[in-house]
């Protein structure tokens, strides 16, 4: 029989995070707000529930049902996967430099360093390109985590160094041969070139880099440009960077794409990929495209995982150690 | 046959990989913020005992294995074959001595154990975590020694040899942790 006493014994109501960990988390949040206050970057809040969601086939929004009182029809909304589109709409209104600390939600992502609901720090700097923003992120990590100055290496140089290949042109045969040579035991047939690059990255390079100091990895393959500008170098590259430290991906930044037509083409390509994979059909965020059409100022932006930042500060092995209640006992 | 997708797989599940029954030890979700998700799965092949780690694309599926653990009793051996009987159904099973591995050194007639059955034939036998067995052979103790000290080897009635404290004598019953093969305490008859 269910009684108050046996519920206390059987129900896992406690947080696994220690008081001290939660105190460090609170201190880090305060330091982040101070960092941006000193630089005149304004804090904003944008909706967690939105009518549209991302098209990226690898990032899936969690749908929620809304029912206006007295109305029979339900509306599907999505918990935001990142406040990017809403913040860019504010930037298109010339709001100036902004940051946000908010919850973000990703369908299906549960693991040692993943919780489907997590805390994200996102900030935008009008007038910056990705290299200028990398400078600021480096200062940010030195301030918040007391890290040594970061290393920087391009995606091409790193793949050249570890596999002696050019990741911008290597085909699936070349990439799968690299996986075989390095004895990465992959069971599945991977759908495309990017999945093979992701495999080589996550299973071979990522565990080996950024242990002494943070690593900024920049100039991604154009097929992984997402919302970044593409530049013509020796090979066309995406002005995108990621931050790695102690074996964990911590942040992802772009020199933001301003061209609304190009953005729309990329979204449509995502939707075609989703269709091919049998994923649910979703609509493109028309308000975001309209804001780009109006004009996004030249800017760079970055999204950083706060939970992982706290894990690094405390040298924790699991995300559960730094959040009050995880997905399993939320 | 039932299948599990990579995201459902947890430690302890029994699955078929390369046509062999395997037990899952660990399943790590690996995913770049933007990019393909993977599951890095560690498992033990129940036939060979080998521990292997492999990666699947998230969402792929792996068939379940018809592997069950049943409570049983060890009856006797005829030199080459060991005979067991399940406690609930009284069905008898026979295993080759070579498949008993480490477990056989802890079993004496009438001992409880767990039989792992795959497609209704025995795959492995596991002794209880703690067993009580008689010492059949050990050097005489040293007078006055009451602590562990260096210890000495002692042969048990089931055939296992464990290190025991110097004060423990031949003919005594002792409790042993079979998972690590270590002496725990003396037991009064």
Report on this structure:
The complex is a heterodimer of chains A (330) and B (189). Chain A is α+β, with helices and mostly antiparallel strands. Chain A has a domain at 14-146 and 282-329: BirA Bifunctional Protein, domain 2, CATH 3.30.930.10. Helices cover 36% and strands 22% of the residues of chain A. Chain A has 10 helices and 12 strands. With 189 residues, chain B is mainly β. Helix content of chain B is 0%, strand content 53%. Chain B contains no helices and 16 strands. Chain B is elongated, with a radius of gyration of 21 Å. The interface between A and B is medium-sized, with 30 and 21 residues.
Tally of alpha and pi helices of chain A: 10
Q: Class of one domain in chain A, according to the CATH hierarchy?
A: Alpha Beta
Q: How far from one another are the termini of chain B?
A: 50 Å
Could you spell the SSE succession of chain B in H and E letters? EEEEEEEEEEEEEEEE
Q: In the CATH hierarchy, what is the superfamily of one domain in chain A?
A: Bira Bifunctional Protein, Domain 2
> Treating each run of at least 4 consecutive H or I residues as one helix, how many helices of chain B?
0
The biggest beta sheet of chain A is recorded as: 9 strands, mixed
For this structure, the CATH topology of the largest domain in chain B is: SH3 type barrels
Total strands of chain A: the figure is: 12
Overall structural domain count of chain B: 3
Q: Tell how many strands the DSSP assignment of chain B holds.
A: 16
The secondary structure category of chain B is mainly beta
Rg of chain A over CA atoms, rounded to whole Å, is 21 Å
User: What structural category do the secondary elements of chain A indicate?
Assistant: alpha+beta
- Please state the average pLDDT score of chain A: 95
CATH architectural grouping of the largest domain in chain B: Roll
Uncertain segments of chain A = none
Give me the Rg of chain B, rounded: 21 Å
Beta-strand share of residues of chain B: over 45%
- CATH architecture assignment of one domain in chain A: 2-Layer Sandwich
